[in-house]
Amino acid sequence: MGYFAIPVVMLVMFAFIGIELMGEEIEDPFGLDCNNLPTGDMAKSIQNNVFEIFELDEEKA
Fold first, then answer.
1. Cα separation of 21 and 46, whole Å?
2. Is the pLDDT of residue 61 over 60?
3. What is the helix (H) or strand (E) element at residue 17, kind and residue range?
4. What angle do CA 5, 9, 14 make, to 5 degrees?
5. Same domain, 36 and 52
6. 14-50 burial code (b ≥16 CB/10 A, e <16)
7. Which of 5, 21, 42, 46 satisfies CB 3.0 to 4.6 Å to 1 for a cystine?
8. Contact by Cβ (8 Å): 18, 10
9. How much is the pTM?
10. Range of the domain at 17
11. Is 35 found in the same domain as 25?
12. In angstroms, rounded to a whole number, what is the distance separating the alpha carbons of residues 9 and 29?
């Protein structure tokens, strides 16, 4: 393949490095980064739903 192998190898490595970086990003979904799961918002939503189901006032809890 000669010199054509250099761009092919670079393209393949670019794809592999991209897959590796995506894997590292989704490996730990909890934290404070902008693309992590909003666990605080989910907890607040669950709390509101529980209070609504049991018809409790949030200030009393």
1. 32
2. no
3. helix 5-27
4. 150
5. yes
6. eeeeeeeeeeeeeeeeeeeeeeeeeeeeeeeeeeeee
7. 5
8. no
9. 0.53
10. 1-29
11. no
12. 31
